[in-house]
Automatic annotation (TrEMBL):
This is UDP-glucuronosyltransferase 1-1. InterPro entries: UDP-glycosyltransferase, UDP_glucos_trans. SUPFAM superfamilies: UDP-Glycosyltransferase/glycogen phosphorylase. One of its GO terms (molecular function) is UDP-glycosyltransferase activity. Transmembrane segments: none annotated. Belongs to the UDP-glycosyltransferase family. Its main location: membrane. It comes from Eurypyga helias (Sunbittern). GO terms for cellular component: membrane. Keywords: Glycosyltransferase, Membrane, Transferase, Transmembrane, Transmembrane helix. The keyword Transmembrane helix applies. PANTHER family: EG:EG0003.4 PROTEIN-RELATED, UDP GLUCURONOSYLTRANSFERASE FAMILY 1 MEMBER A1. The keyword Secreted does not apply.
Amino acid sequence: VFTDPILMCGPIIAEYLSVPSVYFLRGFPCGMDFEATQCPNPPSYVPRLFLNNSDSMTFAQRVKNMLVHMLEFVYCKPVFAQFEDLAYEIFQKKVTATDLLSRGSVWLMRYDFVFEFPRPVMPNMVFIGGINCGQKK
């Protein structure tokens, strides 16, 4: 199943049909892509989304980054709760959104590694940045 996993319907269908899934995405909220792939994501090193921090943060920026990281658990749980309920109805067992995402075979990341912050990635994460850029005139 080739899908954008934000809405979680693709991962649920892939799990239900027992077929591999390929994820095509630009970014995932709350760092769930890191958690699902078991990729290291230390808050003192990797800047959080929307904070405008660079990869060389000051101590105050690192503290702010850590606080935002801790708040992600609070505001991200309700976002994916409806999909977890849907998965429970289909599979008749408790499945978290992270569990569903962790079964992805390949993650096609629409990042350009040159322009993103340096961070560790897993072998099944492939950077394909620039595929949706217009031709320069």
